[in-house]
Amino acid sequence: MTKRFRKEIDNIKKMVLSLGAKVEDRVQLATQAIETCDTEIATKIINQDHEIDQTEVEIEEECLKLLALYQPVAVDLRFLVAVIKINNDLERIADQAVNISQRILTMSKDKTNGQKFFFDYTPMAEKVNYMLKQSLDALINLNIDTAINVCQMDDAVDKINREAYRSIKQTMKDNSEQLSYLINLFLISRHLERLADHCTNIAEEVIYMIEGEIVRHGSITTE
């Protein structure tokens, strides 16, 4: 490929890494807001979401332009295909941060909560933040071991999500007056679980980028 093409590829890499850094910052703030019920942070995340959306569109347009102009093959084709998918997952991760923020705002206005029950999402949030960081590290360094590790962490997040469901469901039986609050509390768990799924998707695309092998739906195994 030409020097121009290589320059364009490098530019896309920089754009994706910049988007990843912004998304990682949003997720860290959103998980922090869960613990503190900080409505100011939640509002800020919601109001700034358009920046992520705009960048996601710009990256996709750049990838499609290169596919049309240069018709790349092999490694370069895999890179562009993977970046288009990773780009979408990063935008969806930011959406989950917005969803969490919306739940926080709704819960803060709910006068029935009375601070009687709160599920501790700290371990789940820490795992999700780590998965996002590691998936981006895998992308930056093209490290397949790091990518595989991210995929294997998803089960731990799923387990906490199930624990949250059981705990909150039981609380609903004894506190029907808090139903709205508890539903929003559980939805936070669901958003964190979906966020972890998107981190896994990114890791799987990194594996595809490196190996040319499609790994999805729990198909990764260890020896």
Question: Could you name the key traits of this structure?
Answer:
Methane Monooxygenase Hydroxylase, Chain G, domain 1, 223 residues, mainly alpha, 83% helix
State the gist of this model:
The protein has helices at 3-36, 39-47, 49-70, 74-109, 122-141, 144-174, 179-211. The chain has 223 residues and is an all-alpha fold.
Tell me what the structure shows.
The protein is mostly helical and 223 residues long. It has a single domain (3-211), classed as Phosphate transport system protein phou homolog 2, domain 2 (Methane Monooxygenase Hydroxylase, Chain G, domain 1, Up-down Bundle), CATH 1.20.58. 83% of the residues lie in helices and 0% in strands. The protein is built from seven helices and no strands. The protein is elongated, with a radius of gyration of 19 Å. The mean pLDDT is 91.
Q: Give the proportion of residues in helices.
A: over 70%
Low-confidence stretches: none
Strand content: under 5%
CATH architecture: Up-down Bundle
Which structural class best describes the helix and strand composition? mainly alpha
N-to-C span = 38 Å
Describe the sheet with the most strands: none
Mean pLDDT: 91
According to CATH, the fold-level topology is Methane Monooxygenase Hydroxylase, Chain G, domain 1
Q: Given the structure, what is the number of helices?
A: 7
Rg result:
19 Å
Number of strands: 0
The gross shape turns out to be elongated
The run of helices and strands is HHHHHHH
CATH class: Mainly Alpha
Number of domains: 1
